[in-house]
Structures are given as C-alpha cells and as structure tokens.
Amino acid sequence: MASIFSKIVSGEIPAYKIAEDDRFLAFLDAFPIARGHVLVIPKAEIDYIFDIDNETFSDLHLFAKRVAHALEQAVPCQRIGVAVVGLEVPHTHIHLIPINKISDMNFANPKLNFTKEEMQAIADSIKNLL
Predict the structure, then answer these.
(1) Do 125 and 74 touch, CB atoms closer than 8 A?
(2) How does pLDDT run across 23-55, given as a tens digit for each residue?
(3) Is residue 99 pLDDT above 80, yes or no?
(4) Domain hosting residue 24, numbered range
(5) Hey, which residues are catalytic here?
(6) Statement: residue 80 has pLDDT above 90
(7) Which of 58, 20, 12, 52 is nearest to 39 (CA)?
(8) What's 120's domain CATH number?
C-alpha cells in the first residue's frame, strides 16, 4: 500500500510543493508545528532512512540543505531545526522547522492552522528563494 507521501509524489493528493527534482520532493507539512515547517522526501518509497543507499542518503541531505537555506530567508528564525523521526509515516522524510528556541522542535506542541491562501503564500515565499 502506497504511503501518503507516495500519493503526494504521484499527484493523487495535493501538497504545497517547495522544490522537486527527479528523485526528491520538498513540501509544506500539512500539520505544521511552525510557520514554514517543510518535509523533504525521496520519491522512492523507502520506510527507514538508514535503509537508503549511501548516494541517495547524501543527495537527500544536500537537497534538504538547499531548501533549508531558502526557508531560513523566507521565514525569520534563528535556525532551521532538522529532525528525522520516522514513526509517523512509513516513508523516509526529513523535517525542516524554523526555530528560535529548542522547545519549537517539540512535536507534542499544538499543530498550527493556516488558510489555503496562507499556505500557498508560505510555499511561494520559499520557492522564490531557491
């Protein structure tokens, strides 16, 4: 059964896409813990990040780094926090989260709600800096 992220890759489920190439995709988290919370995934459905071959692992992180630099410019923050949890969706993904303090990275924090227009504006502001 395809993961929700594979359905985003195939276009079955819409997403606010930030960056994409033939192997990777970055999009806004639908349940963000911070404004600009981005997920970066390989398009290939691989459940566990440490099961990825070395080249893909490295390239995924380089892709995420490029997105993080644009995100940092688009959303004022002290840092872009990086997390790989791997339990919530059986598809490797990296969280890029604008943070100002360590508690901003707490996934138990309430999820934020943005309108479709706000989500699109956030996505566009990041995309325009890539």
Answers:
(1) yes
(2) 999 999 999 999 999 999 999 999 999 999 999
(3) yes
(4) 4-127
(5) 93
(6) yes
(7) 20
(8) 3.30.428.10
Which residues are CB-neighbours of 124 under 8 A, at least 6 positions away?
Answer: none
Predicted TM-score (pTM) above 0.90: yes
Q: Cβ(81)–Cβ(71) under 8 Å? A: no
Q: Residue 73 above 80 pLDDT?
A: yes
Rounded to the nearest 10 degrees, how much is the dihedral formed by the CA atoms of 24, 27, 30, 34?
A: 120
Number of domains in the chain: 1
pLDDT at 2: 86
For the range 124-127, what are the long-range contacts, defined as Cβ-Cβ under 8 Å and sequence gap of 24 or more?
125/74, 125/75, 126/18, 126/36, 126/38, 126/67, 126/70, 126/71, 126/74, 126/75, 127/17, 127/18, 127/19, 127/70
Please say if the pLDDT value at position 1 is more than 90: no
